[in-house]
Write a structure and sequence with these properties.
- The protein is built from two helices and nine strands.
- The protein has helices at 7-20, 66-72; strands at residues 4-5, 25-33, 37-45, 52-57, 60-65, 76-82, 85-91, 97-98, 105-106.
- The model has no long low-confidence stretch (mean pLDDT 90).
């Protein structure tokens, strides 16, 4: 089991944690929503509970709740800029389909 970061994503997370002045790392999860079933939830990890699994890549802690783990296991998180738009992108080997807008996925 693993979650990986590209150097671009790790740099972005590092910058945001430094500007914020607190946080243990990145919290990655999923929620039921959208036209395809699930959407990624990305936030700061301010604490680690006993229901969390912690990965570390590029010196960044990635915290995933056990309920989300099966849906995001093996995912690579990237950060991309396209013109004025910037966003985290997910390369998730578990995804079987995505909605047209790219906001949700199915497994």
């Amino acid at each position: 089991m693993a979650i990986n970061l590209t150097e671009s994503a790790a740099g972005r997370i590092r910058d945001h944690l430094q500007r914020r002045g607190s946080g243990l790392g990145l919290r990655l999860g999923v929620k039921k929503t959208g036209c395809s079933g699930f959407a990624y939830v990305v936030n700061y990890a301010d604490e680690i509970s006993e229901d969390d699994v912690v990965f570390e890549d590029r010196q960044i802690k990635i915290v995933v709740d056990r309920d989300s783990l099966a849906l995001v296991d093996g995912t690579e998180v990237d950060f991309v800029r396209q013109g004025l738009n910037e966003a985290f992108k997910f390369r998730n080997p578990n995804v079987k389909g995505e909605c047209g807008c790219g906001e949700s996925f199915s497994v």
